[in-house]
C-alpha cells in the first residue's frame, strides 16, 4: 500500500496516505490471512505509522532518519532498496527529460536516497533490494548498494537470500 506519496505527489513524500486506523486495519486483516504487507514509504510520519502498526517491508526508505531507523533496528521488518528507479537512465529520469521541475525533484530525491541508504547500511536492519518498475535492473541495484556502503557480500545477500527471506520464500 502507499504509505506515503512519492517524488511529485500532491500530498508529499512523508505524510501518511491513510489514517492510523486504516493502516492498522489493512495490516491486521492481511496478517490474519497470513500474508505479508509491503508499503511504499519514503520516511516521515507515513513510514513511522506503518512501522508502528507492523508492516513487513518498506520499499524505498528514501528519506529515513534516526526515528525511523530506531523503530526498525533489530526487528524483523525489511527495508527494500530501489535505487534504479531514481538513478538508472530508464527510471524516472527517462520521464523527466525536458521537465525541469521533475528533474529538480529527482536530483533532490537522489541525494536523499543516498544519504538515507548510507545510514541504513550502517544500522542493524534487514535489507533487501528490488527493482521497483525496472525489470532486469538487479545488477544495477547491487552496484548501487555497494556504492552506498554495503560490502559485495552484503549486496549479493540483499539480492538473493535476504530478498528471499523478505518475500518469505527462503526455504
Number of strands: 4
Order of strands across the widest beta sheet? 1-2-3-4
Largest sheet composition:
4 strands, parallel
Spatial separation of the terminal alpha carbons: 26 Å
H/E series, N to C? HEHEHEHHHEHHH
Strand content: 5-15%
Mean of the pLDDT scores? 94
The residue ranges in which pLDDT falls below 50 over 5 or more consecutive positions are: none
C-alpha geometry:
globular
In terms of structural class, how would the helical and strand content be classed? alpha/beta
| Integer-rounded radius of gyration | 15 Å
Helical amount among residues, as a percent range?
A: 40-55%
What's the total helix number? 9
Q: Could you walk me through the main structural features you see in this protein, from its secondary elements to its overall organization?
A:
This protein is of the alpha/beta class and 171 residues long. 50% of the residues lie in helices and 12% in strands. A 4-stranded parallel sheet has the order 1-2-3-4.
Amino acid at each position: 500500500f502507499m504509505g506515503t506519496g512519492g517524488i511529485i505527489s500532491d500530498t508529499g513524500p512523508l505524510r501518511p496516505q491513510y489514517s492510523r486506523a486504516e493502516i492498522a486495519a489493512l495490516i491486521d486483516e492481511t496478517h490474519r490471512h497470513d500474508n505479508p504487507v509491503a508499503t511504499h514509504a519514503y520516511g516521515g510520519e507515513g513510514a513511522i505509522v506503518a512501522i508502528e502498526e507492523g508492516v513487513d517491508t518498506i520499499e524505498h526508505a528514501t528519506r529515513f532518519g534516526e526515528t525511523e531507523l530506531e523503530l526498525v533496528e533489530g526487528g524483523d521488518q525489511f527495508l527494500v532498496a530501489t535505487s534504479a528507479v531514481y538513478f538508472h537512465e530508464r527510471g524516472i529520469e527517462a520521464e523527466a527529460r525536458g521537465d525541469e521541475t521533475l528533474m529538480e525533484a529527482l536530483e533532490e530525491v537522489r541525494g536523499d536516497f543516498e544519504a538515507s541508504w548510507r545510514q541504513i547500511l550502517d544500522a542493524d536492519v534487514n535489507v533487501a533490494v528490488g527493482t521497483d518498475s525496472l525489470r532486469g535492473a538487479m545488477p544495477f541495484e547491487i552496484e548501487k548498494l555497494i556504492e552506498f556502503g554495503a560490502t559485495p557480500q552484503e549486496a549479493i545477500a540483499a539480492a538473493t537470500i535476504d530478498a528471499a527471506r523478505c518475500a518469505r520464500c527462503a526455504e
